[in-house]
């Protein structure tokens, strides 16, 4: 009865968030875009940077005057560059303006990246510190639009992303083949899930209680490896089914929901999963809830994918590759984490590990809900997410290390050495 009441409360809260989020504010970090066009003696780089992000990162005004344009030119020249081997290419800002789109201004500029010798116009490294150096959750989507040597048509192919942790990208000219859009989409999906700490927190929170049995409304003793692995496989499959369904519906069927609503619901899903990891809310029904929550996460994946601005003609290829990239990372995480959790679950320390990790997920999810629902100061959010990302990595590696140590101690070879 108590469990049923908790489920009803959780569903009611979720519905309340759905109803109210439409008028709520949220911290959204729009991405920048960079389009590469190879010419005979140079590479033209068309860039689009959200005006608010540019103004925050640079401290410069956004205005239709020459002073503001000069400051923006200097900012881009200082923070965007290219080099081929030891040759540092010349960077020239050919055009720049602030263009209003959908009521919000963007910084739109065209840069020329010029090598000393046109014969060196092949592989090069693009270095970018604009905005991402000051806004950790910002990213730059880099796309190859034109290259007479290796690509026909003007439809852009995604070739990589730039972030605060990875501000250099190797551009390999002539590497574009018929399979490149698919491979790029796989890489994009894998990179998105690895960088999406809310998705990783959700997966961790759902996996934490799986090695334990529920008795009397609490998580009790370990349930054994086989049922845990079986439950984990069903859970991951359910989550995959859920997010794949809405990813397909959004990409091919035109299903849309406000981004603020989707991001808030993703945060709520992390919070509910974390509470469940502390005290059972839906024991033995994790797969069902993973499927339902997967529907929401799929809309988040679709929102990210739509921001790449890929053509509709290649949506199917991009969709399949992107989804495969997500699944590869999820399966890899499950294959690493679940055996470690099973190994640690038979020790008294696991209850503390589970409770501590679940509480950590609760706290970060509560902050995400507040940020995406009412909005929180950007400086605090940036610092908070940097700490969360580092802590999440430490949690995963700590679980893996502890599991390996315990497994090594219990192995037959270790027992023979101690006999």
Poorly predicted residue ranges: 1-29
Straight-line distance between termini: 51 Å
Count of runs of 4 or more consecutive helical residues: 12
Mean pLDDT: 83
Structural class call reads alpha+beta
Strand content: 15-25%
Give the CA-based shape: elongated
Q: What's the helix-strand series?
A: HEEHHEEEEEEEEHHEEHHHHHHH
Number of strands: 12
Query: What is the CA-atom radius of gyration, in angstroms?
Result: 24 Å
Strand order of the largest sheet: 5-6-2-1-8-9
Q: Assign a percent range to the helix content.
A: 55-70%
Instruction: Tell me about the largest β-sheet.
Output: 6 strands, mixed
What does this entry show, briefly?
The protein is 56% helix and 18% strand.
Molecular structure report:
The N and C termini lie far apart (51 Å). This protein is 56% helix and 18% strand. It has helices at 2-20, 51-58, 66-79, 180-195, 197-207, 225-253, 259-278, 286-306, 315-345, 349-373, 378-410, 412-418, and strands at 32-38, 43-50, 80-84, 87-88, 90-101, 104-114, 124-128, 140-146, 157-162, 168-171, 212-215, 218-222. The strands form 3 sheets. A 6-stranded mixed beta sheet has the order 5-6-2-1-8-9. A 4-stranded antiparallel beta sheet has the order 4-3-7-10. The chain has 12 helices and 12 strands. Mean pLDDT is 83; it is low at 1-29. It has 419 residues and is of the alpha+beta class. Helix 5 runs parallel beside helix 7 and helix 7 packs antiparallel against helix 8. It folds into 2 domains: 32-176, no CATH class; 188-412, no CATH class.
């Amino acid at each position: 009865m108590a469990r049923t009441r908790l489920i009803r409360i959780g569903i009611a809260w979720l519905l309340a968030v759905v109803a109210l989020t439409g008028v709520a504010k949220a911290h959204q970090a729009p991405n920048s875009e960079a389009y590469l066009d190879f010419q005979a003696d140079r590479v033209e780089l068309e860039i689009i940077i959200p005006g608010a992000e540019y103004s925050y990162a640079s401290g410069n005004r956004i205005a239709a005057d020459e002073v503001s344009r000069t400051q923006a030119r200097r900012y881009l020249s200082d923070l965007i560059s290219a080099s081929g081997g030891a040759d540092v290419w010349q960077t020239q800002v050919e055009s720049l303006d602030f263009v209003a789109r959908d009521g919000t201004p963007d910084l739109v500029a065209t840069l020329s990246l010029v090598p000393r010798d046109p014969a060196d116009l092949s592989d090069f490294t693009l270095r970018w510190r604009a905005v991402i150096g000051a806004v950790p959750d910002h990213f730059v989507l880099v796309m190859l639009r034109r290259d007479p040597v290796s690509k026909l048509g003007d439809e852009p192919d995604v070739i990589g992303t730039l972030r605060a942790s990875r501000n250099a990208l190797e551009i390999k000219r002539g590497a574009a083949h018929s399979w490149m859009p698919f491979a790029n989409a796989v890489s994009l999906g894998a990179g998105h899930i690895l960088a999406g700490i809310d998705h990783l927190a959700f997966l961790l929170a759902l996996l934490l209680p799986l090695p334990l049995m529920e008795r009397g409304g609490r998580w009790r003793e370990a349930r054994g490896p086989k049922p845990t692995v079986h439950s984990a496989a069903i859970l991951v499959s359910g989550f995959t089914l859920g997010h794949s369904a809405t990813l397909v519906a959004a990409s091919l069927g035109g299903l849309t929901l406000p981004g603020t609503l989707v991001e808030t619901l993703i945060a709520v899903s992390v919070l509910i999963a974390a509470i469940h990891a502390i005290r059972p809310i839906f024991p033995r029904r994790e797969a069902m809830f993973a499927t339902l929550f997967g529907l929401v996460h799929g809309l988040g994946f679709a929102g990210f994918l739509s921001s790449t601005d890929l053509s509709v003609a290649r949506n199917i290829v991009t969709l399949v590759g992107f989804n495969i990239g997500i699944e590869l990372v999820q399966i890899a995480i499950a294959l690493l984490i679940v055996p470690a959790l099973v190994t640690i679950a038979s020790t008294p320390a696991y209850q503390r590990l589970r409770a501590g990790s679940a509480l950590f997920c609760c706290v970060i999810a509560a902050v995400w809900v507040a940020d995406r629902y009412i909005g929180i100061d950007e400086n605090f959010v940036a610092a908070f997410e940097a700490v969360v990302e580092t802590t999440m990595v430490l949690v995963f590696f700590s679980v893996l290390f502890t599991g390996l140590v315990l497994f090594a101690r219990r192995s037959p070879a270790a027992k023979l050495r101690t006999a």
